Amino acid sequence: MTEYQNQPAATGPAGYSATQLEAIKKKALTWTIVGFLCGGVVAGILGLLGYLKADTEPATAEKFTKWAKIVTIVIIVLNVLIWILVAILMATGAMTMETTTY
Questions:
Q1: Band of residue 75 on the pLDDT scale cut at 50, 70, 90
Q2: What is the mean pLDDT of residues 29-35?
Q3: Does residue 97 sit within a domain?
Q4: Is residue 99 part of a domain?
Q5: pTM, two decimal places
């Protein structure tokens, strides 16, 4: 029941409550923004699809959001590993940033 005595709680598709749908949309929007900023276009689009599907297909929206999260985390980990590799190569002298002109 809602705060009003004679009105049942609103339910969305497949028995999802309004608060569950809002939580799904909030999570999808968060991962859309994080995905575009840190994970690239693919992660951002997956998050956006999750956000757009939240009202009509909440289960599908949760799957898209999960994949946006996974792709974003994988991209961030790969970026960190690349930066560590570059730092190691520069520290050992295998890679330098010097240029010579003739």
A1: very high
A2: 96
A3: no
A4: no
A5: 0.76
- Give pLDDT, residue 10: 57
The reply to whether 8 falls in a domain is no
User: Structural domain of residue 76, as residue ranges?
Assistant: 13-92
Other beta carbons within 10 angstroms of residue 20's beta carbon come to 14
5 found inside a domain: no
pLDDT computed for residue 44 by the predictor = 96
- The pair phi, psi for residue 89, each rounded to 5°, is -65, -40
Q: How many domains does the chain have?
A: 1
Which helix (H) or strand (E) segment is 3 a member of?
Answer: none
